[in-house]
Design goal:
By secondary structure, the protein is mostly beta strands. The chain has a single domain (about 40-335), classed as Neuraminidase. It contains one helix and 25 strands. The longest helix has 5 residues, at about 25-30. The radius of gyration is 18 Å and the shape is globular. Belongs to the TolB family.
């Protein structure tokens, strides 16, 4: 399904988004998106090449949309009357992987970039969520609770050869490949709280990269492999900000500083900007910011509906060389961890 729009037509927000299972990781964020009281932002222009795919409830339930990086040329790609969310571009831009509960529980699907040929890749009674492509398009990483707690898995683009990569009593979730495909970054509760970890693409040599009292979540690797962006809960207020850390865990730096939410970062093709969704000014909308924290601008509106979890298509013609450096293995002493019974960290209780 592909529907084109020339204007921002608001529609009612999905009824408290009660249909979203906790395992889709959006419910807590959407329910918290009240008016922030901060000033309106300029509209983004000249933000670079590539298209952005995202989820929106502008048609009464969460569906997948795509648009140009400046917000123009928006098209609706799915219309399943269910929850379609967390889309991710294939490296060549020809396909989009996403999660949906259209068949009763969250599963991973893939479709062509125009919304055609929607195919289910996973079929499991447990939740399969948060899929991301490898940089050469040969693998898709995702998270699944099929083994009692969330672990990281990888599979072929056709859904075959589903392989478990992590084996820990704590939640491991929200994974993404490095730019050269040799590493996978993910968030884990195997420490005292949610932190960012990295491991080899086969699951070996897991290394903790962040260690903070706050929750560090939804990590994504920069196009050149040198940095990782993620969201961090605030310790002095309820909410999230976007942070960046070097690939070896050094040089943590806060990018957004707002009273509002700043959630689900995605890198621009040249690695100089981040797209994310926020409730700044009221209603969930997609914003863009320079890596140094300047140039905050608005890509989508947010009146009466929300726009969430953007993924910025990477244009191979502008990608810089790729390198991946991860901190050496360290030994961390921690308390024994039992399989968590609470929701994954991106929907922490408020």
């Amino acid at each position: 399904m592909l529907t084109a729009y020339s204007d921002d037509r608001p529609s009612p927000v999905v009824g408290a988004l009660g249909a979203i299972t906790l395992l889709t990781l959006l419910a807590g964020l959407v329910l918290a998106f009240q008016r922030s009281g901060e000033s309106e932002l300029p509209t983004a222009s000249g933000v670079g090449p590539g298209r952005i795919v995202f989820a929106s409830d502008r048609e009464d339930d969460l569906d997948i949309y795509a648009m140009n990086a400046d917000g123009s040329g928006r098209v609706q790609l799915t219309d399943s009357r269910s929850v379609d969310s967390y889309p991710s571009w294939s490296p060549d831009g020809s396909k989009i992987v996403f999660e949906s509960d259209r068949d009763g529980n969250p599963e991973i699907y893939v479709m062509n970039a125009d919304g055609s040929n929607q195919v289910r890749l996973t079929d499991n009674p447990a939740a399969d969520v948060l899929a991301k492509w490898s940089p050469n398009g040969s693998k898709i990483t995702f998270s699944s609770s099929r083994d009692r707690n969330f672990e990281i898995y990888a599979m072929d683009p056709d859904g075959k050869n589903q392989t478990r990569l992590t084996r820990d009593g704590a939640t491991d979730i929200s994974s993404a490949y490095s730019a050269d495909g040799s590493k996978i970054v993910f968030q884990s509760l195997r420490g005292e709280n949610g932190d960012i970890w990295a491991m080899n693409a086969d699951g070996g040599n897991p290394v903790r990269l962040t260690e903070d009292p706050a929750f560090d979540e939804l990590p994504v690797w920069s196009p050149d492999g040198s940095k990782i962006a993620f969201q961090r809960t605030r310790t002095d207020a309820d909410g999230y900000d976007i942070w960046v850390v070097n690939a070896d865990g050094s040089g943590e730096r806060q990018v957004t500083r707002t009273k509002a939410e700043a959630v689900a970062p995605s890198w621009s093709p040249d690695g100089t900007k981040l797209a994310f969704h926020s409730n700044r000014g009221g209603g969930a909308k997609i914003l863009v910011i320079n890596l140094d924290g300047t140039g905050l601008a608005q890509i989508t509106g947010g009146s009466g509906y929300g726009s969430y979890v953007p993924d910025w298509q990477r244009d191979p013609s502008v990608l810089p060389p790729t390198t991946t450096t991860v901190a050496p293995t360290t030994t961390t002493t921690r308390r024994p961890t039992t399989p968590p019974t609470r929701r994954p960290p991106t929907t922490r209780r408020r």
